[in-house]
Amino acid sequence: MDRFDALSTFLLVSELRSFTAAARKLGVSTSAVGKTIARLEDGLGARLFHRSTRSVTLTTEGEIFLHRCQKIVEEFEAAELEIAQVTQGPKGRLRVSMPLAGMLLTPVISAFAKAFPDISLDIEFSDRLVDVIEEGFDVVVRTGPAANSQLMSKIIGQYGYVIVGSPAYLAEHGTPQEPEDLLSHVCLHYRWSTAGKLESWRLMRDGVYLDLALPTSFIANTTEPLIGLAERGIGLTSLSAFTVRRQLEDGTLVSVLDRYLTDRNVFRLMWPPGRQALPRLRAFIDFMADHLPTYLPTL
């Protein structure tokens, strides 16, 4: 353990480029850090750092040793995680990023919280493109293709799209039978807050997307106002089917033009490589993969 402590001290000095800062973080004196590094250098027979009054930099030998030490520590941490997986149940803080529409998946999230009460969920709902590693997220839930090839990825469910309106609206304005009929209807649109673009209504005929200049009667950057306006008979809106599951079941909204909405998208989990061994992350991945598909409606 003394040798491992020396490696840990070396890694910290390498990261902070300062004996004083490393000592402060370790809660020891600067001289103690210096002696640890000196003993390490004596044992290796090589100088690891160039020291001056203003800076601390790695020597060529130090760079080589740093690369090896990082691998040693990664293997040690992986071994600790494997042992923890055997001896402990999933617990601890799990930091998750989900899209804004993920707020409508609270039944699945609630079920997970009840199944794993020792896991503390810290969830950020946002459509912005987060940097998973730099911002310290354990896992992100996203839709569509994997944008970052450096992350591990798992598809956990798929969903379709619907165009919905209230029974009262359809009784007053008529039920569209063909996509072109939408041109004379009140259309409520979703705008992506990150890109500023309107979400397209994924209408297809004979396998080809239809490019219709739909009226933009109302625009919102979250789905809840669109659902509420549609329920109150203001117009028609196109949304992911899971976002209006309850309204379709209750009959407050009715779907139209279903045969022209055959496109499908996927939910996927993405996480940094090496963290999958964390029991709390493994539990989240497995639970979402098992339970999310049962929540997503099949239309």
UniProtKB/TrEMBL annotation:
Pfam families: HTH_1, LysR_substrate. GO terms for molecular function: DNA-binding transcription factor activity; sequence-specific DNA binding. Gene3D superfamilies: 3.40.190.290, Winged helix-like DNA-binding domain superfamily/Winged helix DNA-binding domain (1.10.10.10). The keyword NADP does not apply. This is LysR family transcriptional regulator. GO terms for biological process: DNA-templated transcription. Residues 1-59 form the HTH lysR-type domain. It comes from the Bacteria. SUPFAM superfamilies: Periplasmic binding protein-like II (SSF53850), Winged helix' DNA-binding domain (SSF46785). It comes from Aliidongia dinghuensis. Belongs to the LysR transcriptional regulatory family. The keyword Protein transport does not apply. Keywords: DNA-binding, Transcription, Transcription regulation.
